[in-house]
Amino acid sequence: MTSLKILAALAGVAVISIDLLDLVRALIVPRPHVGGIVAWSSRGLRRLYGALAARRRTFGGRDAMLSAGEPLILLWRLLVWLALGLAGFGLIIWSVGRVGFEQSFVESGSSIFTLGIASEPGAVPSLVAFLAAGFGLVVVALQIAYLPALYDAFNRRETLVTLLESRAGTPAWGPELLARHALVGIEGNLPRLYADWERWSADVAESHTTYPALLWLRSPHPTNSWVVSLVAVLDSAAMLLALNPATAPPEARLAVRMGFTCLRDIARVIRIPFDADPMPDSPIGLPFGDFAAAVDRLGSAGMTTERTAAEAWPDFVGWRVNYEAIAYALAARIDAPPGPWTGPRPHEREGLNPLRPIDRRPDQPEGTPATRREPGPTG
């Protein structure tokens, strides 16, 4: 064996070892994996795909394009792992066999995809072919096992997001959540809702840091989004704690704490900078005028409050400062629907206010006039 073939064999072993390590860390080890060739190339593809989607003039057009982005990247990851394995085994086959350089990669591909259309006689080449076939099966099997786990976590996430449509509108909005509960007299259901979202936040914190691809998988409904829904729940809980400190359920406090813990865990994985211990009087992006208008909206819906908007504002800021900056950055990065109070978007000038359904009754079959979806602030 010549020195060149020895180097080729060592290079092939190194490529396969790196590829297998990356595969195991990405699909088996239950911890975030944001390094390696596959992760780096996936981030590059997301940026490229996002730039192409940004050329669409409407949010609906961008959402339709972005909805296919992450599934395509999942296929890309499989392709990269297989391609690196093909290259590594191709180098090894060339170094231990008698075929030409190009033919060695044909044999490598034949073995990895278990086609058996090209093989070289001999004990060592046959052993390498068996190893290559095993490698291909392992890569495909792990990816097949990975997808059910990924989409199971996705379905768990989307269940509560969809349930929030009837409670907080779409896109979801915190003040609308409180207003709808007050309108129909079901404010007693809020503690259970906040308890459910506390568990939801813990689940998302674990699943979305282990499988970061979930962050970019979009909801089936274009105006739904997990991050917009989480902000809506956190804002409603923060408003309740600030406006009614004596009667607010303790579940609201726990939901806010788990909610911003979830956002911080995700921010660490995708490298969004944040202040881990902000001062409660630090400035926030949401203007007081928007908060005061939302408090008036709650009063119109029949909700009683212990404090005025001005009195509740410092406490509300003290809660919101824990999650606002991360939520804004995350919503902008994944191009979430421009719901109220979720920050600016790089490609949207106006946000969308949630649409409240017509209230039809037997004595008023026509109901009140339909509430149109008007452009709203994204701050």
Topology overview:
Layout: H1 3-27, H2 36-53, H3 59-66, H4 69-96, H5 101-112, H6 123-163, H7 165-168, H8 174-183, H9 190-210, H10 226-243, H11 250-269, H12 288-300, H13 309-320, H14 324-333, E1 351-352, E2 375-376
Helix pairs in contact: 1-4, 2-4, 4-5, 4-6, 5-6, 6-9, 8-10, 8-12, 9-11, 10-11, 10-13
Give a written overview of the molecule.
The protein has 379 residues and is an all-alpha fold. It has two domains: 3-145, no CATH class; 164-376, no CATH class. It has helices spanning 3-27, 36-53, 59-66, 69-96, 101-112, 123-163, 165-168, 174-183, 190-210, 226-243, 250-269, 288-300, 309-320, 324-333, and strands at residues 351-352, 375-376. A two-stranded antiparallel ribbon has the order 1-2. Helix 8 packs across helix 10, helix 10 (226-243) packs antiparallel against helix 11 (250-269) and helix 10 crosses helix 13. The relative contact order is 0.10. Mean pLDDT is 89; it is low at 369-376.
